[in-house]
Amino acid sequence: MDFGFLLFLFICTLPRISAQVFPEATVIVKGSSRTAETDDNFVCATIDWWPPEKCNYDQCPWGQSSILNLDINHPFLAKAIQAFNHLRIRLGGSLQDQVVYGVDNVDPCLPFMTVSNGLFGFSNGCLSMERWGKLNDLFQRTGAIVTFGLNALSGRSHIRRTIWGGAWNSTNARDFIQYTISKGYAVDSWEFGNELSGHGIGASVDANLYGKDLIGLKSILDDLCKKSNSQPLLLAPGGFFDQQWYARLLQVSGRGVISALTHHIYNLGRGDDMHLLRKILDPKYLDRVSDKYRDLQLTIQRHGPWASAWVSEGGGVFNNGGHLISNTFINSIWYLDQLGMAAKYNTKVFCRQTLIGGNYGLLDTETFIPNPDYYSALLWHRLMGNAVLSVDINASSFLRAYAHCRKQKQGISLLLINLSNTTQFTITIQNDMNIDLDEKISIKKTKSFVRVIKRTVSWIGKKASYDAEMREEYHLMAKDGYHQSKTMLLNGTPLEIAEDGGIPPLNPSLVAVNSPLSVAPMSIVFVVLPKFEARACA
């Protein structure tokens, strides 16, 4: 075969190679109506009860990160929370149904200890009121919004397998809530139980019994808070979604008891799974969990429309998270996709497992230095408002797109996630408001589509000015292209804290709105369009 023929073949394949590596994609944002709404404080993080002895897969990654032993005076911790200007923090986890509250006659008030016959291999543990006071000092200093998980197994007995029965003994919980109110500690919401729904994890409680106990707990809250200016929310059950169990819980407890149905998301599986990286980058695998969000939404609509949906614990990988995965850049692809998907299905709050602790902490367990997901969470919190907009995308399934009204400002914010490790997408962002149906159907990946649509949006086709015709771009990538790096780049600059723990500024690149937008392989981009016309955001 001569050189001339080889050159001819190469030239013929160039367009195909180009289309594969730099395909054009059109993202149409439907700004005419909201499809869902989140709470203003949608981003949430947990602090767990696990002691240092909690180990899985020959790893013990919890260190001193428990509610009982966390260094709450560490300056990095306070600065990390304050940066959110009101971060919701959930106190809870697997051991919460073994917690005794050290009010009045609880003596001695001991921490969790390893035992052979306890749930999860641990004894009961005690939260002293001294420690509770110090935690609340932290929350008040940092402006945190507190959700506290109550012990729902108190007074019950083990019947068989994972099943627990008997009446819930509310005495200790009531005393604790009363003490909390008397001290002026602000608890926004109380969550009843942890992973006791359905077959449970370690223990389970029948939905009929659980529902009756919730009625009793709501009565306690109403009685203790009747003289208060604010009424805390009651959440339940903080478990894995089981449609029949959740529906029955709503039916038994009835209207006006539960404010939110809470569930947990660990859709990536075990921490020692050799396929974790593949799962995070597989759009079909990521899409599977959408069924959970959809089914919970339908269950609420049919059986308890007075309640909302929360993810009160979402870590992706159960049993401590994935070593060198859950605390690295690549996990932000999973995490931000979950935030986008959960919001799309009207989830009001998403609590990340964890703020600190295990392999999935937003902060490093030993140094308190933010991991990449911390910055992903902070950017979402600052940019993505509570109004969710629908998006149509004309591209490979490896490009993910989510749109919200801009946080407390005019315009919209768009999140783009590129799961491909080879393809760079060139994006055209368009407004759906004035496009007729025939034009929508005829969308092509061509420049002619841009010409057809220019007249329909106010921020395309005009002379760019610095004030009115710029967009903000926040490109997130891994340092040195190593996707398991613990250093994230924002517009090419490493995100690193100051010596005193100060969070670095998260400054955007300012780009003319009519200039091309590229999303590099294995990268994440937040785009803010201040002049995007969206009636839903007015």
Automatic annotation (TrEMBL):
Q: What is its main location?
A: membrane
Gene3D superfamilies in the cross-refs: Glycosidases (3.20.20.80)
Q: Which UniProt keywords apply?
A: Glycoprotein, Hydrolase, Lysosome, Membrane, Secreted, Signal
Its localization reads: Lysosome membrane; Secreted
What cellular component terms from Gene Ontology apply here? Answer: extracellular region; lysosomal membrane; plant-type cell wall
Q: GO MF terms on file?
A: beta-glucuronidase activity
Q: How does it sit in the membrane?
A: Peripheral membrane protein
Among InterPro entries, the record links this protein to: GH (IPR017853), Glyco_hydro_79 (IPR005199)
Q: Does the keyword Metal-binding apply?
A: no
Q: Which residues form the signal peptide?
A: 1-19
SUPFAM superfamilies, per this entry? (Trans)glycosidases
What Pfam families does this protein's entry cite?
Glyco_hydro_79n
Task: Give the UniProt family note.
Answer: Belongs to the glycosyl hydrolase 79 family.
Q: What does this protein do?
A: Endoglycosidase which is a cell surface and extracellular matrix-degrading enzyme. Cleaves heparan sulfate proteoglycans (HSPGs) into heparan sulfate side chains and core proteoglycans.
The name of this protein is Heparanase-like protein 2
